């Protein structure tokens, strides 16, 4: 039984109600009016950042774990966003059970010397899974603390020898109508797509997660392979990845494509830049006990508290312009 049905709470009351209604209203409006989706003109690409200070191994490791209380396993695995399986928080945990995650192939291509199609095992062969305890901050205003298992994305990407043209990395989720009931609704231009600048992708905090709480990743959390970028809003952490492509120009990304004025390409967590329709100054931490889902509201931190590790990536960039 899902957490929501166990507590008998409608999803609309769990997520901030305004945010819940607004994000879904947007999806509904776009479904009815594709023209709206096209209304945002493409932003220019930001200038390349000046070379940031290199991160010392100690600084990097300092971001690898937080001592904050973990969000309960049952909340991490029943309060999800995975629109391929529905838009309610409880939909993925019930509908994604049947997603087949083996065999799983990832196509790697674009600007690299060694492209190809790789089985999951081959893709991460020889890389020992590491535990990372990261905060996850959703753009909707809730957050969790999750113990992930995974491998640094940089260690995987280096295997394909990206060329000097690889300025960005694009990621694509599986879009299988037979396995994913949400694909029937053209709310998003499926497949779900995300992207990072190459220096963000190569950053030591960026993880390709294969598990959580010491177990293989549950389907609803993006099995068998998902991205985790802890200083960015959760929608950048794309699930169930089937393609990784090195590209020269900023790739199309799903939420930015849906509404560019509301969901930027960078989407770094930033309490000083509100979403046009709600504040990003605070968040509701999902760290409840007993039947309580949310703990108290807490202040949201710039770069989700990972500024020491990542601020250098954005030196010289106006974070309001490049939100
Ligand atoms: N990836 C895909 N393919 N589809 C999605 O709908 N939702 C994103 C992100 N990755 C999403 C996705 C959003 S909005 C968030 S907040 C996180 O996944 C949620 O991850 P979780 O369900 O594991 O907490």
From TrEMBL:
Cofactor detail note: Binds 1 Mo-molybdopterin (Mo-MPT) cofactor per subunit.
Gene Ontology molecular function: any one: oxidoreductase activity
Source organism superkingdom: Bacteria
Binding site for Mo-molybdopterin: 80, 83-84, 138, 173, 221, 226, 237-239
EC number: 1.8.5.-
Claim: Metal-binding is one of the keywords in the record: yes
Region (Disordered): 40-59
Gene3D superfamilies: Oxidoreductase, molybdopterin-binding domain (3.90.420.10)
Subunit field text: Heterodimer of a catalytic subunit (MsrP) and a heme-binding subunit (MsrQ).
Function of the protein: Part of the MsrPQ system that repairs oxidized periplasmic proteins containing methionine sulfoxide residues (Met-O), using respiratory chain electrons. Thus protects these proteins from oxidative-stress damage caused by reactive species of oxygen and chlorine generated by the host defense mechanisms. MsrPQ is essential for the maintenance of envelope integrity under bleach stress, rescuing a wide series of structurally unrelated periplasmic proteins from methionine oxidation.
Name of the protein in its database record: Protein-methionine-sulfoxide reductase catalytic subunit MsrP
Gene: msrP
């Amino acid at each position: 039984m899902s957490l929501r049905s166990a507590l008998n709470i409608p999803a609309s009351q769990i997520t901030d109600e305004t945010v819940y209604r607004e994000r879904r209203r947007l999806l509904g409006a776009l479904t009815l009016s594709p023209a709206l989706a096209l209304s945002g003109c493409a932003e220019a690409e930001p200038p390349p950042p000046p070379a940031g200070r290199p991160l010392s191994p100690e600084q990097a490791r300092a971001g690898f774990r937080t001592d904050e209380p973990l969000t309960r396993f049952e909340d991490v695995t029943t309060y999800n966003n995975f629109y391929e399986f529905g838009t309610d928080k409880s939909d993925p945990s019930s509908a994604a059970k049947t997603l087949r995650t083996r065999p799983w192939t990832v196509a790697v291509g674009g600007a690299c010397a060694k492209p190809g199609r790789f089985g999951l095992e081959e893709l991460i062969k020889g890389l020992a899974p590491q535990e990372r305890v990261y905060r996850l901050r959703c753009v909707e205003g809730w957050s969790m603390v999750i113990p992930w298992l995974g491998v640094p994305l940089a260690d995987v990407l280096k295997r394909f020898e990206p060329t000097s043209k690889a300025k960005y990395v694009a990621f694509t989720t599986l879009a299988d109508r037979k396995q994913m009931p949400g694909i029937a609704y053209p709310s998003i231009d499926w497949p779900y797509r995300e992207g990072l600048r190459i220096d963000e992708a190569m950053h030591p905090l960026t993880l390709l997660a294969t598990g959580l709480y010491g177990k293989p990743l549950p389907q609803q959390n993006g099995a068998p392979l998902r991205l985790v970028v802890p200083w960015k809003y959760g929608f950048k952490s794309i699930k169930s990845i089937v393609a990784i492509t090195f590209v020269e120009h900023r790739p199309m990304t799903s939420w930015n494509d849906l509404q560019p004025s509301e969901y930027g390409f960078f989407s770094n967590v930033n309490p000083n830049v509100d979403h046009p329709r709600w504040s990003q100054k605070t968040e509701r931490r999902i760290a409840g006990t007993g039947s309580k889902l949310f703990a108290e509201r807490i202040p949201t931190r710039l770069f989700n508290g990972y500024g020491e590790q990542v601020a250098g990536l954005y030196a010289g960039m106006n974070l309001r312009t490049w939100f």
